[in-house]
């Protein structure tokens, strides 16, 4: 059903029918899309004075949880967080949230 809708939209020229037309539409600023994205990414990767997001999140120690399940929302403010993810903590190594990368471990009280 979705493919029929897509085909109908392409035929009606609401959506472009080829990659070439799409890339022409996305370069109205006169900058080829691939060059712009590639240069931006390369420029960001060259700046070694700043840490990458993954380096920053790895500096946060694993969060200890009393139960077997952790509920991660990414932030206390819902506008800044992500969809809630329930994470099972049955393994010995820290469990990682797939959205934000925070790590959780079960706090064993022995």
UniProtKB/TrEMBL annotation:
InterPro entries: NDUFS6, Znf_CHCC. The keyword Cell cycle does not apply. Residues 67-104 form the Zinc finger CHCC-type domain. Keywords: Electron transport, Membrane, Mitochondrion, Mitochondrion inner membrane, Respiratory chain, Transit peptide, Transport. Its main location: mitochondrion. It is a peripheral membrane protein. The keyword 4Fe-4S does not apply. One of its GO terms (cellular component) is mitochondrial inner membrane. Pfam families: zf-CHCC. It is found in: Mitochondrion inner membrane. Belongs to the complex I NDUFS6 subunit family. Accessory subunit of the mitochondrial membrane respiratory chain NADH dehydrogenase (Complex I), that is believed not to be involved in catalysis. Complex I functions in the transfer of electrons from NADH to the respiratory chain. The immediate electron acceptor for the enzyme is believed to be ubiquinone. This is NADH dehydrogenase [ubiquinone] iron-sulfur protein 6, mitochondrial. It comes from Cardamine amara subsp. amara. The lineage of its organism: Eukaryota, Viridiplantae, Streptophyta, Embryophyta, Tracheophyta.
């Amino acid at each position: 059903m979705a493919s029929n809708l897509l085909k109908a939209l392409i035929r009606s020229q609401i959506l472009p029918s080829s990659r070439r037309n799409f890339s022409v539409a996305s370069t109205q600023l006169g900058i080829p899309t691939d060059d712009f994205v590639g240069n931006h990414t390369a420029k960001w990767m060259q700046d070694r004075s700043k840490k990458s997001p993954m380096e920053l999140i790895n500096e946060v120690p694993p969060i200890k949880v009393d139960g077997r399940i952790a509920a991660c929302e990414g932030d206390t403010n819902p506008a800044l967080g992500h969809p809630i993810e329930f994470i099972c903590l049955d393994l010995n190594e820290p469990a990682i949230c797939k959205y934000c990368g925070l790590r959780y471990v079960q706090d064993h009280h022995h």
